[in-house]
Amino acid sequence: MSSDSRSELFRRYEGNPILTAADWPSTVNAVFNPGVATLQGETVLLARVEDRTGLSHLAVASSADGLTNWLVDHGRALLPDLESHAERFGIEDARITQVGDEYLIVYTGYSRDGALVALASTRDFRAYDRRGVIMPPEDKDAALFPRRFDDRWALIHRPVSASPRHAAHIWLSWSPDLRHWGDHRILLRAREGGWWDAHKVGLCAPPLATPEGWLLLYHGVHTTAAGSIYRLGLALLDTERPDRVLARSTEWLFGPDTEYERIGDVDQVVFSCGWQLLDDGDTIRIYYGAADTSICVATASQSALLGWLARHSG
Fold first, then answer.
1. Residue 33 φ/ψ region, left for φ over 0, alpha for ψ in the -120 to 50 degree band, beta for the rest
2. In this structure, is residue 307 part of a structural domain?
3. In a 10 Å sphere around its CB, with 0-12 CB exposed, 13-18 middle and 19+ buried, how is residue 208 labelled?
4. In 229-301, which residue ranges form alpha helices assigned H by DSSP?
5. What stretches of 148-254 show up as alpha helix (H) in DSSP?
6. How much is the mean pLDDT over the chain?
């Protein structure tokens, strides 16, 4: 098997799925698409939990080793404000960026007018400071960089045109205060035709700082006669100028393969909202939702991912 093999780059944990609806203390339909953070030496997942009502909220599951013995604590959940316009139909898909001792949580709220991007912050995943809507509908798949650039924050997000004929691209926007956003520009365009990432692309995990630049994990949607397939690819941004794309993978890197990824509430989906660089400085854990039903994890080498991207960029 060659060193370019996708199966060698991403190694699925043999204990997958690591969390399912059966692990929850209450009756729920599915748990998936978690954001991830490290707090006091523990791995914390902020998972999307879809109730049997069809609405979602964000719940905390923690583990000492990030793989086993997960503790689900309903008292630490981030619940939607169902009386508000912005979160009337639930919240989902958190991306977590740590800045100092504060965790900035960018998540999707569902309003009467569609999906939007909202921001909250926490220091302990118990008390949350809601900072409100930062991108109006229709918008989602958003995350912040963990540092400012010339005193401005940068946000990656994915607006969607009201016209079904228009593709959905990944955008970059800037803010001096995390409230007022401008200088909007397309960062990664969806490809056209038969490409694996044609028509729709979106950010997965928050940008990861590497020696070569900001590494992005993004999803592409390929539409077939049997339905859509969600797969993951990579891109690399300039360290000081994140609006400059240095590399983008021509091939998808990680896609639905196992039964738990191919069959579920939404078949043929792997979707990640968080990854974690371990203490050795090279091992990355990717936490992802499988078939919109369960939570799984895979590991990869940062240096191997960068090397693969260099060979498969275009």
1. left
2. yes
3. middle
4. 259-262
5. none
6. 94
pLDDT band at residue 265 under the 50/70/90 scheme: very high
Is the pLDDT reported for residue 77 higher than 50?
A: yes
Could you give the CA distance from residue 106 to residue 215 in angstroms, rounded to a whole number? Answer: 18
Would the pLDDT of 24 be above 50? Answer: yes
SS3 assignment, position 311: helix
Whole-angstrom distance, CA of residue 163 vs CA of residue 161: 5
Range of the domain at 44: 6-311
Instruction: Evaluate the omega torsion of the peptide bond into residue 138 and state whether it is cis, within 30 degrees of 0.
Output: yes
CATH of the domain at 205: 2.115.10.20
Amino acid at 237: L
Burial zone of 118 (CB within 10 Å; 0-12 exposed, 13-18 middle, 19+ buried): buried
Structural domain includes residue 1: no
- Number of folded domains that form the chain: 1
Neighbours of 223 (CB within 10 A): 12
Per the CB < 8 A criterion, the answer to whether 290 and 260 are in contact is: yes
The whole-angstrom separation of Cα 168 and Cα 156 is 13
* The token pair that represents 22 in the structure block: 């059966």
CB within 8 A of 240, min separation 6: which ones? 149
**Token pair of 26 as six digits:** 């209450």
- Cα–Cα distance, 199 to 142 (Å, whole number): 18
Paired tokens of 246: 């240095």
